[in-house]
Amino acid sequence: MAEKSEIKLVIAIRRDLHMTRGKEIAQACHAVVGSLLSRSGYTYDAEKDELNHVKTDKDTLAWLEGGEAKICVKVDSEQALYDLERKAGEAGIRSCLIVDDGFTMFHGVKTPTCIALGPAPADGIDSITGGLPLY
Q: Which of 96, 92, 97, 81 is nearest to 129 (CA)?
């Protein structure tokens, strides 16, 4: 397991869409929550109306205990998001691509807006996102 300080999460946000800052922030939050829940073992018991925590993987635990490093970077196209998703998958790094439903922007058209990668060891994420400009 990597040291706590070496675990991070990167959020890549599409700047070509000209979303409002609030929309960008909301989309990034969706991506972070989705990434965390995707492998943190949460289940929902509809009968009891309860969200139950089952387990937390080692990278998420190290990230939570180590300061929750989050880095935001910019991309300029839908294809860039899909490329990041593919590269993360090839590297074994979890990701959560967000596709907005278009209710408040984008005139009802489902639109990929951002992606979160991690939490994962920094060296693996850096090999994928290290060349992207900071937001």
A: 81
